[in-house]
Amino acid sequence: MLTDYFADKSVLVTGHTGFKGSWLIAWLNQLGAKVTGVALDPPTTPSHFMAADMEDGIKDYRVDIRDREALSRVFLKTQPDFVFHLAAQALVKSSYEDPISTYETNVLGTLHVLEALRGLNRSCAAVIITSDKCYDNVEWVWGYRETDAMGGPDPYSASKGAAELVIRSHIKSYFPEGSKVRIASARAGNVIGGGDWAKDRIIPDCVKAWSENVSVQLRYPNSTRPWQHVLEPLSGYLNLATLLATNPDLHGEPFNFGPQAQQNHSVAELVQEMSRHWDQVSWNLLEQPDNTHHESGLLKLNCDKALHYLQWHAVMGFTDTVEMTAAWYRDFYHDPESIAVTTREQISRYMDIAREQGLPWAL
Ligand SMILES: NC(=O)c1ccc[n+]([C@@H]2O[C@H](COP(=O)([O-])OP(=O)(O)OC[C@H]3O[C@@H](n4cnc5c(N)ncnc54)[C@H](O)[C@@H]3O)[C@@H](O)[C@H]2O)c1
Fold it and tell me: Which end of the chain is more exposed for a tag (fewer CB within 10 A), N or C?
């Protein structure tokens, strides 16, 4: 059970002010961990981090991961048992606008995290989060496996593929078999859930538009993605970290975390499903789609490796995923003061669903 591993443990999370990172620290707090966060300020206003009062009860460092020495100092001070590295420039469009800082943050920043781990002299299990976009996407109908080629037709995707190469090389070069620090990488994508207000992501676009009674504009209605609730990959990261701490064979291994194969749905289907939970909704197609940016049409992950080695699989279907997401935003727009409770309740509900399905990490 996750509490057995994380209660009273020192856990360092980079990117804790972001969408996924703030859900992760909420969950770690619920598991009784001693949480330290390293990030820049929340990337959006509003943000899940601020709305749910996440700064309470954690050590909160605002450090740029491009600053290697400052980052290493936090690692040495924290002496973490577990590390989750999520800090990144996470948006494809922003990566076209500023490729240099995207590569600096996503590639050099990851290298700095690896170097900070190298400076530790203690047992530590580290999960480094890249993306499903790290793969060379040839738009085929099969799910990508962890052994498939890295690639990336845009600066963000390439930075994630490059981060994977740096991780693999650093593990081979500096963290040999028997190393006290164990490292694995995690590749997930297209996460939805309450508290995301990032630019040019479809669910934030919907809730921003609909909460102001305006129509949402769909850019790529036919693109299909492995949509999953944010708690699904987070359960994978937590589970991977605990097994990495106990099983040396997982050191150096990458893992995909995605929904079950039949959960690939188009943007239009996602918006349609979301609209069932909102009173005033409308959408229209963007008349002139933005052709300056590459947008893949099809992207699937094969998650057999996580199932085999971690007994992990996603537990929620598409309709429940969208319902939980919509419920969070409805609560936020009706009563923002109560949103920390909603977050905690959704984490508990998610763990209950996983327990009912007999997943070992939840029992
Ligand atoms: N959200 C998704 O659908 C998705 C899909 C695939 C992969 N990911 C990956 O998951 C991770 C988290 O994504 P997210 O959606 O929560 O992103 P986000 O933009 O909401 O949060 C990014 C976090 O990184 C921090 N950060 C950015 N630049 C930094 C820097 N130079 N120094 C220190 N901190 C910095 C921000 O302050 C924030 O805390 C990222 O690595 C992202 O690439 C996300």
Answer: C
